């Protein structure tokens, strides 16, 4: 298996990874951290997918996709922190004024997990941010201490995977997800 990571400009492939089975569903579409809360609540049903389609046509696209051949098998959301709700977060601190990028969602399709795809996605997101001029990239994974994490809540990633990719612990947070604290991990790209 050879995994290729490319920018998420193909909307149908993004839909495969983060879209709902029913077009009218009000699921995340990986918008919860990307847009202000008010807009997130206003985007209902098909409007959510239409918004994501616009993001896929924008520069930069909303993240990266992992492919096994022609099949999309993974997604990572990455964007300038200033374009996300992390810019205004009270729970995830700003450690300095560097215009960092945020990596906040890593998703691998069922049937493709435990094959190293999340590691490829993290590496691809780092390269994507670097190619777009990011001086550093941050992630806000769970510090689960090796404990099992429900796959639904593991979308933010786990600390050890980011450490493996060269990220270092930069700060604690007051955010907790699935009973585990989240930490701020950073990788300097300068």
From TrEMBL:
Domain of life: Bacteria
InterPro entries hit by this protein: Acyl_CoA_acyltransferase (IPR016181), GNAT_dom (IPR000182)
Domain N-acetyltransferase residue range list: 38-190
Protein name, entry field: GNAT family N-acetyltransferase
């Amino acid at each position: 298996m050879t995994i290729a990571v490319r920018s998420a400009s193909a909307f149908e492939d993004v839909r495969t990874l983060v879209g709902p089975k029913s077009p009218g569903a009000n699921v995340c579409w990986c918008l919860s951290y990307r847009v202000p809360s008010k807009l997130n609540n206003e985007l209902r049903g098909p409007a959510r997918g239409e918004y994501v389609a616009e993001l896929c046509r924008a520069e930069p696209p909303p993240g990266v996709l992992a492919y096994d051949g022609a099949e999309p098998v993974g997604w990572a959301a990455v964007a300038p922190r200033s374009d996300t709700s992390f810019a205004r977060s009270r729970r995830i601190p700003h450690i300095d004024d560097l215009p960092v990028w945020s990596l906040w969602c890593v998703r691998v399709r069922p049937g493709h997990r435990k094959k190293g795809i999340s590691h490829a996605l993290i590496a691809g997101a780092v390269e994507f941010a670097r190619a777009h001029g990011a001086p550093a990239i941050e992630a806000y994974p769970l510090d689960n201490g090796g404990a099992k994490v429900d796959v639904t809540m593991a979308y933010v990633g786990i600390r050890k995977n980011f450490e493996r990719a060269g990220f270092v612990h930069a700060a604690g947070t007051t955010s907790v997800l699935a009973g585990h604290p989240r930490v701020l991990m950073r990788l300097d790209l300068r």
